[in-house]
Amino acid sequence: MKYCLAIDIGASSGRHIVGRYENGVLETTEVYRFKNGVKEENGHLVWDTEHLYREVCNGIRKAKAEFPVTSLSIDTWGVDYVLMKGEKEVFPVYAYRDHRTEEVIPEVHSLIPFEELYAHTGCQFQPFNTVYQLYDDLKNGRLEGVTDFLMIPEYLMYRLTGNKMKEFTNATTTGMIDHTTLEFDREIIRRLELPEKLFPELHKAGETVGEYEGIKVMLCATHDTGSAVEGIPMTGNQLYISSGTWSLLGVKTAKPITGEGSMKANYSNEGGVGYNRYQKNIMGMWIVNELQRELCPDEDIRDIVAKAEESREDAVIDANDESLLSPASMKEAFDRLLGKKLASPYDYFRAAYLSLAQSYKNAIKELEENTGSVYEELYIVGGGAKNGFLNRLTAEATGKKVIALPIEATALGNLRAQFEN
Question: What is the pTM of this model?
């Protein structure tokens, strides 16, 4: 029997999951879990990549002790990266919730207007897109002597193998991929005066990176949403939400959709395994998690959801408002958007869930207009799929048949890339 290891790392935790096929069914066992999170350092939000690497190795050792693992792959969130000078890292490794790009975004758009960027890449505007982060690095002299920028999973696999490979699905989160050639856009690189050597050819899921302690290290769809979509057992081409820190709502399309309607709706085109993912980032469980941390940190989320369901509050905010990205106080951010304070902590949670459901409704309306198709079913995977209250609100708001699958879809997609290659 063949055993493969999926290392799936999100913004708040990481998981090591071993997979094997039994009677034609992919069975999984979680063997290790660890905490992750941003740190504040010198007024900036950064990732502790040494912590991530140690925990990756700890989990591999645990997996090897329990199963004869033959291959592994790593997926993480997109956008963020590690700068390298040969074999030496350039620290700090900034996190996407840091605000460092705010000053350079207007300058980037003065060199390449966003309408033109979108026409080239089909990538939605987010203030943390890699293109803005790299330009900030350029302006602050951080690219001097740099030989590579490695997305987080690429960096971790480099640490395991000594080999540097850039993977396609994660590259499409940078805002720098030409949607026609599916390679780095040389005109964007030239006009922003970024070093050409940082942008080599891209590699696909299934390719081998190298070896670590006798285990083959492979590329999966290293952007976790790319792996999550691969792991959803959809019966047809239906809508999906990968519900975690972010809610990624979208659909598979044969080609990118980059018209004015898509740009105005801030839809993104990201790489899939043989298809395009036409999707939108919605703030997701981040707003709920931050409310819990602030208002009732010692209360079980299941009890919070039950009390939110009993609330009669009907207030709704724009769940995509930029003020929710990394506020000092999520409650105060809600108060500002609502123009009032709510009576109970659980009113805030109900407002959060109602707002997410409304955001899903609005995003689906835009998606169907831009694709020219109507979809009947909505598959929800990830941590948010376990929230029956939000699922019910989503079904009521969207009018879609919600199929909630509380499965480790990202790990399943990661594993399938290994088993199929």
Answer: 0.93
